[in-house]
Amino acid sequence: MGISERKTRERGERERRIVVAARTIAERDGWASVTIRRLAEEIEYSQPVLYSHFENRDQIVGAVALEGFGELAAILRAAIRPSSTSKERVEDVATAYLDFAFDRPAMYEAMFVLPTGLRFARSDTPAQLRDGFGAMATVIAPFSQDADTATETFWAALHGLAELERHGRIRPAFRAQRIALITQMVSGQP
Amino acid sequence: MGISERKTRERGERERRIVVAARTIAERDGWASVTIRRLAEEIEYSQPVLYSHFENRDQIVGAVALEGFGELAAILRAAIRPSSTSKERVEDVATAYLDFAFDRPAMYEAMFVLPTGLRFARSDTPAQLRDGFGAMATVIAPFSQDADTATETFWAALHGLAELERHGRIRPAFRAQRIALITQMVSGQP
DNA sequence: TTGACAAACTAGCAATGCTAGAATAATTAT
DNA sequence: ATAATTATTCTAGCATTGCTAGTTTGTCAA
Fold this sequence. Notes:
CATH superfamily of the largest domain in chain A: Tetracycline Repressor, domain 2
Structural class of chain A: mainly alpha
Oligomer: homodimer
Number of helices of chain A: 9
Radius of gyration of chain A: 19 Å
Strand content of chain A: under 5%
């Protein structure tokens, strides 16, 4: 009988509607506007229904963040052009990373600032969470013995640039120079 | 008459007690536990009194953060030893910065993550906010033409390392290696 | 038709930031 | 000294939040 299949499918669709609504509201009005009540209204179910899909609000944020990690990974991979030099690839990935952070601040916030209940560096860590790191490692590896440590450091620099600029601590006008500086340092080529 | 002097003095003392209480509770139980009700209870006044000192909760966080910026600046300056080489100074400042971030996570959160209502890069920006940057600029300047941009980038790298490690995204055991890598890149000396 | 189970809803709790309006204390004017 | 005024502080409560207990509604097998 396909009844239970239909039910699980409908459940899945409802869950997606929750995540999509959360993302949409967050991108338009910020995460503070993503309340359980508002999401419930959006999907046209009562509030407790949300808790049959997610343990709590943080996990809804986490579901959106997971999407974000997948998209970031794709964007970073797409930024790596075969025709580019190794140094250009570093610069392109850095630029793509920061563009992502500034174009989708709510998504970036979900991924890196808000509590999400996501588990990193575990055996059950979803592929999306490792993928972005992999893309960065690809462009960093040619310049380093210890690619993991170098990638962590590169990633940290990008994340710091994103956060400090987002909070108005560093000058937006000099973003390109900072990227150039990092690229130069990583590649060792002026 | 010293009556009004006494009053303003007592008001100032009460304000300090609010800030101290906020900091103490945050460092022990996290910022979520720093509620207006709890602060009011701590200083033994009713809640509305807090709003005669601060516009809202964010500004209380901001007052604590301002203290933190002063302390961070002092710590960074103290980390610069005259006997050290330029390269060692970079490493020492980086280490001191991260030690600060990990030893006082609540304070660091107030300074860099939570909304505080603090204004940066303005004419009325308090000295504390500029001072830490100045300390970093001191050790970066010898290696750079454009000290400001280089310092911003250095700072971003440190901030990124602090945040990613705090959120469990990078391996804590490799902190020293990452610092060494940054130092090496900044100084250009392996 | 009935009984058992699943799904969804109503209603409400406890906690939050913040504030209007009343009450009290202190100061000034008469 | 007393009354009027001003400054301080408090009580009480609003609106909103995440979350949940308990009830109702719907579904399916016996």
